[in-house]
Amino acid sequence: MQHRDEWFFRFKTATRALIKMIGTIEDAALVAGVSKSVMHRWSSTTDADMITIAAALKLEAECGVPCVTEAMAAHGRLTLAKSDGSVPPSCMMTAFGGVADEFGDLANRVAEALRDGNLSPNDHVAINDALTELIEAANKAKGTSARLRAVGDQA
């Protein structure tokens, strides 16, 4: 096997993270418009083939996490920022804190709704809203984990 530098493995790790967020190699291949064997080669550290930019962008758009783009930016000693100026959590503890906060809000709304023993339509709306916020926080944490893996950060 040829000598591989650390960035080779970071790009492969980012590719594998994208595939896992999509589901399976077959699912990712379908989204990217390539065969299963091509997607498998792109994710394999024993194969020199690298994911194409077009395929990476399709997968990133599907799952909402720019894993490969983050790895490419980190390779150039750059970081990505969203157009609205928001930044993703910089470490897993911050991301996990967001999940814990949203879970606490959900538990609070459920407890308030159950206090009188009757779940009204408004109670269901409030619980649904809290569940949506929890899902968004979990997705943000998932993206943070994938981003940190892609750039090789240990935070």
List SSEs in N-to-C order. HHHHHHH
Q: What distance lies between the first and last C-alpha atoms, to the nearest angstrom? A: 31 Å
- Tell me the fraction of residues in β-strands, as a range: under 5%
Q: Biggest β-sheet, characterized?
A: none
Helix count, DSSP H or I runs of 4 or more residues: 7
State the helicity in percent bands. 55-70%
* Integer tally of domains: 2
DSSP summary, beta strand count: 0
Overall pLDDT metric: 85
What would you report as the Rg, rounded to the nearest angstrom?
Answer: 19 Å
Find the CATH topology of the largest domain.
434 Repressor (Amino-terminal Domain)
Catalogue the unreliable spans: none
The CATH architecture classification of the largest domain is Orthogonal Bundle
- The class by helix and strand makeup works out as mainly alpha
CATH C-level class of the largest domain: Mainly Alpha
Shape: elongated
In short:
The protein has helices at 6-22, 25-32, 36-43, 53-63, 67-75, 92-114, 121-151. By secondary structure, the chain is mainly α.
Tell me about this structure.
By secondary structure, the chain is mainly α. The chain folds into two domains: about 5-75, Orthogonal Bundle (434 Repressor (Amino-terminal Domain)), CATH 1.10.260; about 90-150. It contains seven helices and no strands. Helix 1 (about 5-20) crosses helix 4 (about 55-65) and helix 5 (about 65-75) runs parallel beside helix 7 (about 120-150). The longest helix is centred in the C-terminal third of the chain and has 31 residues, at about 120-150. The model has no long low-confidence stretch (mean pLDDT about 85).
